[in-house]
Amino acid sequence: MGGKKEKIILTGLRPTGALHIGNYFGALLPFVKMQETADKFFLMVADLHALTTLEDSKNLGQNSLSLAMAFVASGIDLKKSVIFVQSQIPQHSELAIALSMITPVPMLELNPTYKEMREEHPKNNNLGLLAYPILQASDILIYKSTEVPVGKDQSPHIEIAREIARKFNNRFGNVFPEPKTILQKEAKIFSLQEPSQKMSKSHGEKTYIALFDSPDIIREKIKIAVTDSGREIKYDEKNKPAISNLLTIYGLFEEKPIKEIEKEFEGKTYAEFKKDLAEIIIKGLAPLQKKYKELEKKPAHIKSVLEDGAKKAEKIASQTMLEVRQKIGLI
Ligand code: AMP
């Protein structure tokens, strides 16, 4: 590589249940692109992070496997990327303990996402939620990641990771690069029932299209999606938020500029537009659904993908942890 610094990227998702088309355009597809630009790409099923707000862990194991299958089905290439489950690499937790010793509590208390999460999950105001950024710093630093792609809401966490890396290096000697935040352009998709809200699975089945919804369910959800007053199919976020959201979805699936879609549907009714949109979503998700179903039929395959990923991840994580132990004086 002619002395060029390696580009190491870590990212991941929490296995919190059904994925929807917002996750697809906002996370899965960007991950597939990212793997092409990185020298090392680590893609984590963040099951420990899921525990912070979990009310019932009965589906956590299955959700972790499903998420790993969704990564593969959406085009993650195992020759280019390492897919692994966070809890299967014990060094993440081990490093988090070491990093917690140099992390000031007020820095965590001031973290804006802590306040939001506490309000969203009042029953889960646990230490894990407060310490979430330490575990996230550990996820990033254990692979000496140089870049972390995140949405705007997560960027305070990466700032904390940078601060922790700096503190560690100053106090014990250089081990960690300070990871750069790569702000993701957000392709925001909104709820089908309440277009002022981000599409999310926590607002009810009718509000989102799940990646693995059947054609009939997709047709039904689009049919009953709310629209705006008037008749024109026109992108206007302020006055026509519902139609604008449906146009965004159409544009993402068809990879077409919205202006072109508006032209195509000039003089047509909302019902005609929605009918076409449903078919476009069904067609767009079909290859992913087919691949996912094939993976589901051979559950041993995804387990071996994760075993292989864990081996590769642990090799690096254990080297870093050895360095950390030496620097801080653990024998
Ligand atoms: P969540 O499980 O809600 O934390 O979402 C995981 C990731 O999926 C987020 O970090 C975003 O990148 C993406 N995402 C979630 N919801 C949406 C949405 N409505 N529109 C676009 N991207 C989304």
What does this structure look like?
The protein contains 14 helices and five strands. The two termini are 35 Å apart. Strand 1 (8-13), helix 1 (21-37) and strand 2 (40-45) form a beta-alpha-beta unit. The strands form two sheets. Strands 1-2-3 form a three-stranded parallel sheet. The protein is globular and about 75 Å long. The chain has 331 residues and is mostly helical. It has helices spanning 21-37, 47-51, 60-73, 91-100, 105-109, 112-120, 127-130, 132-142, 155-172, 215-223, 241-254, 258-264, 270-297, 299-328, and strands at residues 8-13, 40-45, 81-85, 147-150, 180-183. The model has no long low-confidence stretch (mean pLDDT 95). The protein folds into two domains: 8-188 and 299-328, HUPs (Rossmann fold, 3-Layer(aba) Sandwich); 201-294, Tyrosyl-Transfer RNA Synthetase (Orthogonal Bundle). Helix 3 (60-73) crosses helix 13 (270-297) and helix 11 (241-254) packs across helix 13 (270-297). Bound molecules: adenosine monophosphate. Adenosine monophosphate is lined by residues 13-14, 16, 22-23, 25-27, 151, 187-189, 198-200. Adenosine monophosphate (AMP) is lined by residues 13-14, 16, 22-23, 25-27, 151, 187-189, 198-200.
